[in-house]
């Protein structure tokens, strides 16, 4: 059984427990694996920092987990990775991580082991793990995307090349007589190959029989079997599975091997969790957490919207928070600009990465819960000095994947720009204009310096913004220490009536 990218979505966890127990009733030896990103995404995480999720994982008996990128979201906080360390320490299962180096992190290094044990201990991190399943030795390795360095806050935690790390871990297991190997990965099924993904892993690393994946939130209703290597030559089969997101599904997989450890048969499916009834014990346990969350959710901000502010997703050119201007993106950036100007009146405009906007806001009174769910990462507001040329470089990166989605797609306030998605990446931005006090616009001067506002994650180079990272390293960034959700809360309270519009701030001329 497998889950991935649950992102602290616990409202249906009692149904997930039922689904797991039903599978175990039929197959008592079935393992339960998680491919990462338990952290971040809802008020449960904001309030309990993963401990609520962990109580249910312990209750139902997870066997192994690897780390997702969001497990490293809190690294830049004053406490660093303390919450992640507590998560590992309190887990009634071990963790497998073959390409993550925790040795320089004060919170995590004592929890890591360099050797593969005869029996893995709970609350420990190993480069590989061996378990007995149906009287057979099965090896497990764990891989986390190297992109974590750009899209989270790992700080002193480092990520090694996934292909090389996997090859080493596989060889170490094979030397111990293991010929059935499962990779639990947080790479993405078909994610950006410039970083890493499961399809590439399956083709390049011999010896991996099963990949239990996460990160790309892919709904693989049936397993995908890779039978060719990177050169197109026939190879031993590698079975890939992934179970979408938010605990909506419990993935199941049965694999049959021959004596050589080769996959000769497999079957798998996704069980839709919402079709199950609540497990009574889990439902009762959830109440102690959900009651606290309900109090927080229901606290009004003072703002109200007459219509729902959607947060669409589409990777085929349709409306998406990660490829289009949206009402919600405009509201958030307007709030950032408003707050930044209170501190520094010279701020000209604000930028917000689409990947940081996580949920829509329903029509009606806007509550703390709405705001926290929309902006769950607690990023702080920062100001940055950039030249117009650097701003163009940033906007080029923003739309480089268009019309496909990119978490780094920037929403804007106090400016507008046009681009052509049919042109080569890096040469797409056509016009850039900054908004004046009288609501008129002036072309951005590539030689002039501007003060902009964004979140600290982006300001430090998150989502691959090397131009911002350079500015940060040169001391051109000031972290204002104001949390993003609090900024939005204050802004909607100030507006009272919230009615943002899509108004041509970001225009792809290819779609005209």
Model description:
The protein is of the alpha/beta class and 512 residues long. The protein folds into two domains: 284 residues, Purple Acid Phosphatase, chain A, domain 2 (4-Layer Sandwich); 212 residues, 5'-Nucleotidase, C-terminal domain (5'-nucleotidase,  domain 2). 27% of the residues lie in helices and 26% in strands. It contains 14 helices and 27 strands. The strands form eight sheets. The chain has a six-stranded mixed β-sheet, covered by helices on one side. A five-stranded mixed β-sheet has the order 20-17-24-19-25, with helices on both faces. The longest helix has 18 residues. The protein is globular, with a radius of gyration of 23 Å. The two termini are 47 Å apart. 52% of the residues are buried.
Largest sheet: 6 strands, mixed
Care to count the β-strands?
A: 27
Q: CATH class of the largest domain, please?
A: Alpha Beta
Enumerate the strands of the largest sheet in spatial order, edge to edge or round the barrel.
7-8-10-11-13-12
Output the keywords.
single chain; 512 residues; alpha/beta; 5'-nucleotidase,  domain 2; 2 domains; six-stranded mixed β-sheet; 14 helices; 27 strands; globular
Write the topology of this structure.
Blueprint: E1 2-3, H1 13-26, E2 33-34, H2 43-48, H3 51-60, E3 64-65, H4 82-89, E4 95-96, E5 100-101, E6 125-126, E7 128-133, E8 136-144, H5 148-151, E9 158-159, H6 162-175, E10 181-186, H7 198-204, E11 210-212, E12 224-228, E13 234-241, E14 249-257, E15 263-272, H8 280-297, E16 300-305, H9 327-343, E17 347-353, E18 364-367, H10 368-374, E19 380-387, H11 388-398, E20 410-413, E21 415-419, E22 429-435, E23 441-443, E24 449-455, H12 456-459, H13 466-473, E25 477-483, H14 484-495, E26 497-498, E27 506-508
Parallel strand pairs: 1-2, 2-3, 4-6, 8-10, 10-11, 11-13, 16-26, 17-24, 21-27
Antiparallel strand pairs: 5-9, 7-8, 12-13, 14-15, 16-18, 17-20, 19-24, 19-25, 21-22, 22-23
């Amino acid at each position: 059984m497998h889950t991935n990218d649950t992102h602290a979505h616990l409202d249906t966890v009692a149904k997930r427990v039922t689904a797991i127990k039903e599978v175990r009733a039929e197959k008592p030896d079935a393992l339960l694996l998680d491919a990462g990103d338990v952290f971040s995404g809802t008020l449960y995480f904001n309030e309990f920092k993963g401990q609520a999720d962990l109580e249910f994982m312990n209750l139902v008996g997870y066997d192994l987990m690897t780390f997702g990128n969001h497990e490293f979201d809190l690294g830049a906080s004053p406490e660093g990775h303390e919450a992640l360390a507590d998560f590992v320490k309190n887990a009634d299962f071990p963790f497998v991580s073959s390409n993550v180096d925790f040795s320089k992190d004060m919170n995590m290094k004592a929890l890591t082991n360099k050797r593969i044990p005869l029996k893995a201990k709970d609350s420990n991190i190993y480069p590989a793990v061996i378990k007995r399943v149906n009287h057979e030795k099965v090896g497990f390795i764990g891989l986390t995307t190297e992109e974590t360095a750009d899209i989270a806050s790992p700080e002193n935690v480092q990520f090694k090349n996934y292909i090389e790390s996997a090859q080493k871990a596989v060889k170490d297991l094979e030397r111990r007589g293991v010929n059935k190997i499962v990779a639990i990965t947080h790479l993405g099924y078909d994610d950006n190959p410039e970083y890493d993904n499961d399809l590439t892993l399956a083709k390049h690393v011999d010896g991996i029989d099963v990949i239990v994946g996460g990160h790309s939130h892919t709904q693989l209703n049936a397993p995908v079997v890779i039978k060719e290597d990177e050169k197109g030559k026939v190879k031993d089969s590698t079975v890939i599975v992934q179970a979408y997101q938010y605990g909506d599904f419990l993935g199941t997989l049965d694999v049959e091997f021959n004596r050589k450890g080769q996959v000769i048969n497999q079957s798998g499916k996704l069980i839709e969790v919402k079709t199950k009834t609540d497990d009574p014990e889990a439902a009762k346990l959830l109440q102690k957490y959900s009651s606290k969350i309900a109090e927080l959710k229901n606290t009004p901000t003072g703002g109200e919207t007459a219509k729902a502010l959607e947060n669409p997703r589409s990777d085929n050119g349709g409306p998406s928070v990660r490829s289009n201007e949206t009402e919600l993106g405009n509201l958030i950036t307007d709030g950032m600009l408003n707050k930044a100007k209170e501190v520094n009146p010279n701020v000209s405009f604000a930028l917000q990465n689409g990947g940081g906007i996580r949920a829509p806001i329903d029509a009606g009174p806007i509550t703390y819960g709405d705001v926290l769910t929309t902006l769950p990462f607690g990023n702080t507001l920062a100001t940055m000095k950039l030249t117009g040329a650097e701003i163009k470089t940033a906007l080029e990166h923003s739309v480089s994947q268009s019309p496909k989605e990119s978490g780094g797609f920037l929403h804007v306030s106090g400016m507008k720009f046009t681009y052509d998605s049919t042109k080569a990446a890096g040469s797409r931005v056509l016009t850039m204009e900054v908004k004046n006090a009288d609501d008129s616009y002036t072309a951005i001067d590539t030689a002039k310096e501007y003060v902009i506002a964004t979140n600290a994650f982006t300001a430090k180079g998150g989502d691959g913004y090397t131009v911002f990272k350079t500015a940060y390293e040169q001391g051109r960034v000031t972290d204002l220490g104001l949390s993003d959700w609090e900024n939005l809360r204050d802004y909607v309270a100030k507006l009272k009536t919230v009615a943002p519009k899509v108004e041509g701030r970001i225009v792809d001329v290819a779609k005209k």
